[in-house]
DNA sequence: ATGAAAGCGCTAACAT
DNA sequence: ATGTTAGCGCTTTCAT
């Protein structure tokens, strides 16, 4: 290729990378030759020389899914601008696999690693004294020195409750996932505290169950059969909320007239599929992914950021809480 | 590291890669030294030497989502066994982005490329005369010489109809997505042909609409208001099917007693969320991904496979068609 | 059974 | 402004 352009390889390198002091016409001649031959620089050789790969690894500890994808897209967004690519590794909640992928990423000399998962709960650091920076996204690291970007679930729950209060509801119940699940307890506590701050009691004790529509339907039955006086329910997930709406309707209650309902996740297929469309809390997963990638870039570029960063949630009002 | 083990770099390389003729004790000593130092071979240097990267690129033309993920997991499965990793690139349906990623992958000297997308329709080849093998998964290439792995949607539709016949239904309607959508028309035609082969007419003309629950609900209304005599509906997607079930129930029809319903995709959150649980057609996306990766590996290893490979679908019976 | 040395394709420092 | 050259870290002949 350098031969075709009639220059040395060194000159060609400078021409293609916009470095050095070259005559514009030389630069152009090289670019033309590269074009003509479909030449693309060998990234491996470049990495070997420069020590940078312009690649970051992303390890999702839980199986790739609804949460990982927006995180990935957000990260790609932030990294794509810097011409960097993402290596996605699905560890499937298996520590062996996780360490295997970690080794793979290290052998590939990625410039950094983003660790994500399905739960927001803090997890053991993926490694100590690693030769590359690591940022945790959505999940956080148990080591407070590590950099983590997580949704502010307390903020999310607060927004949900305050929205229900704003549309005039006072007898608010909370239905959520398993009690041993971090998100469930965090959101439940924030719900209770927000109500308490307004001088209100929950309309019923928090109902813990599964993250499923079936549980939402069941929970509707429980609320009605215990005769709880409820005019709104904040649910820990959109699936629970959708099930609950169906359960309420099956029992002759109208949503939102009799009972207003707020979900959590703002998962399109759930909020749109629900009749009426579901008001929900959006954790802005893309934003979290973007933010994590930006912090990783900062660290790579020598401006390390430490600690747990939280990002606010957003309420998306829809018909299920319309006044 | 070689120094720690007291050998030359050449010997160390042989020890770690299980090549050459070494004394077992030497081999062990090197492995120990590597362990101790947390040494991992630099993949870039290795690639430079061997010309192989043990990496394949995966370009999804549509935004990463419900279809791409199982395909990716299947591909990872097949490739992981061979110690290969996957570079996931989301071209977001943008040809510019797609070509950009193609260049990136080529510069990274991936051993092969898998191209996927959200639609099964044939697409223009991603490039011609590429220096690496390419396999299309789920989508197919318009060039019949290219290797593509696609679901046999005709088979899927046939299984759906035959299942409905097997549970005693005769007045079968079909509700599906947009008429300009390849999958919609292919499945509709196969539905009609399967019925015809049994000497039956569709209970109503095919209803084309959107891939949404809302359309399913609406379609139920249309079927009922036109007075069509229907005892079963095969829907082009699980979302449509779920909406249709709700619409039928809202109009006082019982599923499956009055109307049996079959969906398409076997998407867990839809089939489980639906009451009654939804019988559906599974395209085995993971299998398609795995298959594509295996064919890619074969091609990389010098046994190229050409042409469009179809893979059968699977019917998963649930309560919505229970007898 | 092991070591020495060449070279993969590129970049960067230095020479011209 | 351009060419020359020495490595980056590994694998792989070829000697020993």
Can you describe this structure?
Two copies of one chain form a homodimer. Chain A is an alpha/beta fold and 323 residues long. The first copy, chain A, has three domains: 1-40, no CATH class; 54-151 and 285-313, Rossmann fold; 153-282, Rossmann fold, CATH 3.40.50. Helix content of chain A is 43%, strand content 18%. Chain A has twelve helices and 14 strands. Chain A has helices at residues 2-5, 9-17, 24-37, 43-50, 68-80, 95-107, 153-166, 182-197, 213-225, 238-250, 268-273, 285-300, and strands at 55-60, 85-90, 112-116, 122-123, 134-137, 140-141, 147-151, 172-176, 207-208, 232-235, 260-264, 279-282, 307-311, 314-316. In chain A, strands 2-1-3-5-7-13 form a six-stranded parallel sheet, with helices on both faces. In chain A, strands 9-8-10-11-12-14 form a six-stranded mixed sheet, with helices on both faces. Chain A is elongated and about 85 Å long. Chain A starts with a helix and ends in a 7-residue tail after the last strand. In chain A, 48% of the residues are buried. The model of chain A has no long low-confidence stretch (mean pLDDT 95). At the A-B interface, helix 4, helix 5, strand 2, helix 6 and helix 9 of A face helix 4, helix 5, strand 2, helix 6 and helix 9 of B. Chain A binds a DNA duplex (16 and 16 nucleotides) through helix 2 and helix 4. Chains A, B: Keywords: DNA-binding, Transcription, Transcription regulation. Chains A, B: This is LacI family transcriptional regulator. Chains A, B: It comes from Actinoplanes lutulentus.
């Amino acid at each position: 290729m350098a031969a075709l352009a009639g220059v040395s390889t060194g000159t060609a390198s400078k021409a293609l990378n916009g470095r050095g002091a070259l005559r514009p016409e030389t630069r152009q001649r090289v670019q033309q030759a590269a074009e003509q031959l479909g030449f693309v620089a060998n990234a491996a050789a470049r990495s070997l020389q420069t020590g940078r790969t312009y690649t970051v690894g992303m390890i999702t500890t839980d199986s790739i899914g609804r949460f990982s994808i927006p995180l990935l897209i957000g990260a790609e967004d932030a990294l794509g601008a810097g011409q960097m690519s993402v290596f996605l590794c699905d560890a499937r909640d298996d520590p062996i696999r996780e360490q295997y992928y970690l080794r793979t990423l290290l052998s590939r000399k990625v410039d950094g690693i983003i660790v994500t998962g399905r739960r927001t709960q803090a997890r053991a650091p993926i490694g100590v004294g690693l030769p590359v920076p690591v940022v945790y996204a959505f999940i956080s690291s148990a080591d407070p020195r590590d950099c983590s970007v997580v949704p502010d679930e307390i903020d999310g729950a607060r927004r949900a409750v305050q929205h229900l209060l704003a549309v005039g509801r006072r007898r608010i119940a909370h239905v959520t996932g398993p009690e041993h699940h971090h998100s469930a307890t965090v959101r439940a506590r924030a719900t209770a505290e927000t109500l308490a701050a307004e001088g209100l009691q929950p309309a019923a004790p928090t109902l813990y169950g599964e993250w499923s529509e079936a549980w939402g339907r069941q929970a509707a039955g429980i609320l009605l059969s215990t005769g709880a006086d409820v005019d709104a329910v904040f649910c820990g997930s959109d699936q629970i909320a959708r099930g609950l709406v169906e359960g309420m309707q099956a029992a002759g209650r109208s949503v939102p007239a009799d009972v207003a309902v707020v979900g959590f996740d703002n998962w399109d297929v759930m909020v749109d599929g629900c009749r009426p469309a579901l008001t929900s809390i959006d954790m802005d997963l893309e934003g979290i992914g973007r933010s994590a990638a930006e912090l990783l870039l900062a660290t790579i570029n020598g401006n390390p950021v430490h600690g747990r960063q939280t990002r606010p949630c957003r309420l998306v009002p829809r018909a299920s809480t319309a006044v």
